[in-house]
Write a structure and sequence with these properties.
Length: 591
Amino acid sequence: MDILISIFKLLGGLALLIYGMKSLSTQLKKLSGSKLEQILTHVTDNAFKALLVGFLITVATQSSATTTVIIVGLVNSGILKLRNSIPIIMGANIGTTINSQILRLANIEGNSFLTLISPATIAPVLLIVGLIIIQKSKKAKNKDIGQLVFSLGLLFTGMITMINIASSFSNLPILTDILKKLSNPILGVLAGALVTAIVQSSAATVGILQAISTTGIMTFSTTIPIILGQNIGTCATSMIASVGGNKNARRVATVHLYFNLIGTILFLIGIYSYQHFIGFSFWNGPIDMGGIANFHTIFNVVSTLILFPFIKQIEKLTMITVKDKKEDEEENEEKYLAELNKLDEGITKIPSLAIENANSVITSMAEVARKNFENSSGLLNKFDEKKLERIKEREDIIDKMEERTTKYLVTLLNNNLRKDENLKVNSLIRIDSEIEKVADYSYALSKIIEEMKDNEIVFSKDAKKSLNIMFRLTTDIISKTIEYLRNEKIDLGIDIQILKEIAETKREEFRADHIQRLKSNLCNVESGISYLEILTTLEKIVDHCYNTSISLSNIITDRRFITKHDYISSIYTNNEEILKEKFNEYSLKYE
């Protein structure tokens, strides 16, 4: 019974350790904002700098998983190339070993000053200080700092708890027998990989080993294969996170796996060959917390030194493993996202080319937004959870594209531009924002339909029919807007004007029809609200497409339309007959 209680206490200490690590990582990421991503995007030109930044960011966030998640996002968005992400991952692997070096401080003895600053002493201080800051602070940022301090206290408290409980395990024959079996390299590696995959933290697994090592029953022969195994097991987090993601997400996770797998195989061959033919004098001797931390660090540093010259080969191996798919939906998106590489600050010195590249990126963004709208509207007829997830992924990607493009265009404005170039850049900044809003409302549409499914709200046959007409009309307006972005022909602006007027007419017609259905009890109140929400969302999308066409017309005509009335007047002044003819033609299409 005492053993069972001790095991529960040990698991409780582990829970505090893991929670402290996760919370610490979360707060550091929150306090840093988007700076981590900005730093990572500016080191891709040099592998050594990328390695250093991967190390420093992981040390700062106390989590290689955080660094890896950021890398996946940047590679997904086309900002970071797969090859450039590899040294960052290597640096992150070295950075994560700092956790074990910090945790070794929990076993400080002898030196009174070091004992004073040991985790056992400062853990309660950190908890108290952190709690005071959280309770007394009014600003959110200060509360985050308090949470960070409190999380560090939890981390150390968990480690101290584990050490105190582990001391009672030293006389357990069953534990000694298990450790003897784990000195078999294959079993040791498998055990380390399995435990780390379950715990989802390599630092936590090393922490467990360090806690048990204080009993004196851990040996180098037992510990080394387990540490090698946990370096493979830690890849489970990134592999799980990449499931359902695009191929670049899977490739980043595969790079992480290959790095640790190859390093483990090389170490197993090297260490056990030496032990077999020559032998380590310390092989069967006890290992302490410092020894565990040092071997963990040595493994990742040496693996990096060996594999660093082979970054290109690792990339090729990953490309072979996660192959391109022909006619894949993701492939088209990646083609659009790769356009972000055109936003090179060096090109801003050639404004005409920079403007052309920015327009190309915005057009790609609009195409992704159209894909999202088509998928969102399609959910009404056939709901699909996987499509809903992809819609969210694209929405995140579009947000990053919009932010990157806006910053690029603002940088371009700081150059000495001609009057016409200045007009184009300002117009593109507005267009970039309008397209992002089209994407936002497309995502909002998916959430309305998801809520309808959750609440079992359904539309009548007539309501669905009218919405499908509006979906088709809105899709055509988005497509015309994309075509206008590509070709910049004023006739396309006229087409968008006509489609907008038809959309307004149809919307009012369908709104009136639905109110009549409500009065006749053919639809209930809940479905009525959802129906009107969808119509309003479609109205917003059309408006933002229309605003885009006005800004594009500014560029083409080299003038500013102060109000929408000015724009409409300019179109109707010279094109009234054409407008009437096209209006009748298009109206028939949406009956």
